[in-house]
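Hello, quick one for you while I still have it in my head. A protein chain has come my way and I'm curious about its shape. Can you walk me through what the tokens say about the fold? No rush at all, and the record is pasted right below.
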Amino acid sequence: MCRTGRRRSCNFRHWPYPALTTGREKWSVHRPALLPVPVPLADLLSPMLSLPDISTLRLCSVLATSAFAAVFLVLWSGRRNEAHWPCWAASSGGYAAILICFAVDSHPLVTAALFAGLGATITLLLDGVRRFEEGRGVPVRLWALGLSPGLAYALPLLALGLSPGEAGAWPCRLLATAATAVNTATVAGLLLLDRSQAPSLGRRIAAVALFGYLPSYAAALVCEATGSGTIALTALLPMLSDQLLLGVLYLGLLAMPGERAQARLRLLAERDPLTGALNRAGLSARVPGAPPPGTAVILVDLDHFKALNDGHGHAVGDAVLKALVAVVTVRLPSPRDLVVRLGGDEFAVVLHGTDPAAARAFAERVRTACRDVPGLPAWTVSLGVTLARMEDRSLDETIARADGALYRAKETGRDRAA
């Protein structure tokens, strides 16, 4: 039906689609296929492979370090006696300030001072770790190494009279970057390999993050040595590393207090609070399964301990228990050997890598030493000695045999080892 109301036939040849079938067949419209337009691979990858804007990278680094500086300061506000927090806050906050100052054109001697500050922020990380673990900072020689990038930058200007322009300052950048890399590697190595303290996972994570900066410093040195480097490129490569490594570095530092708190809780859970000896939980954690061959168990029991408590008071009884642990501990043959308070006045000594004769000799030395402890009433101990057997499935079976030997020592007169 046309617009005038008259019926007329349609000419399908003028239909806007290419083909159309009628009659008994269903209507079908054939549309042309959409063919993809080929795009060169280089055009796809070029946005990803092009160097990012240095101002954007600097802003990201400044924001990240400022945020961590604020976190360190907040933690320090509630724990003013912990000196590592201000060190780490000064390191991260100082790094943010230095990045901002590097963006401003300044005198070359000011740039040298900024390089010195950059090295000092790295040394501050180690200084905070030392104060956290040992209560003292780093020695003067490490501070001198930390300030060396500034001297390395200023040395060619002062000694050779080089121009501070872009072309003339490349020896300064080369030496300053090399000194920064040496300082970073030294701090990372001390964090990773320092054996003065028990291994800390957080400290090792921070060390690995610092080692991660070395490839960017190496690339910057190559660019400077080959004449293809600029001060923008020298700053760009480490800031690229910042985007990956800054968070890892500071999170590693934040993990260290948590690790120490966890270790203290574990110590409280596995130690007897009165004597400092291990408790049963601590013994199970250190000898979880069958005792290895050469393991000796010596049970030690104070003779007539109830009478000692009743006659001299519980304070004297507690002092005797502490003295017994001290007598045993100083005579342990190896740091691997254990002193355990099983309960009340009964203790167990676990010796590793020993034999029956050595175990009996140790028991005799302990028995003799307990008879004469200055400042306390006279007291004695009875001891039961046994060695682990191949058929022992747990240390409890070995302790049970040592308990039988202890019972025989008490039955035969006390103040003896059986």
Summary: Residues 1-35 have pLDDT under 50 and may be disordered. The first strand starts at residue 296 and ends at 302. The beta strands are 296-302, 338-343, 346-351, 381-387.
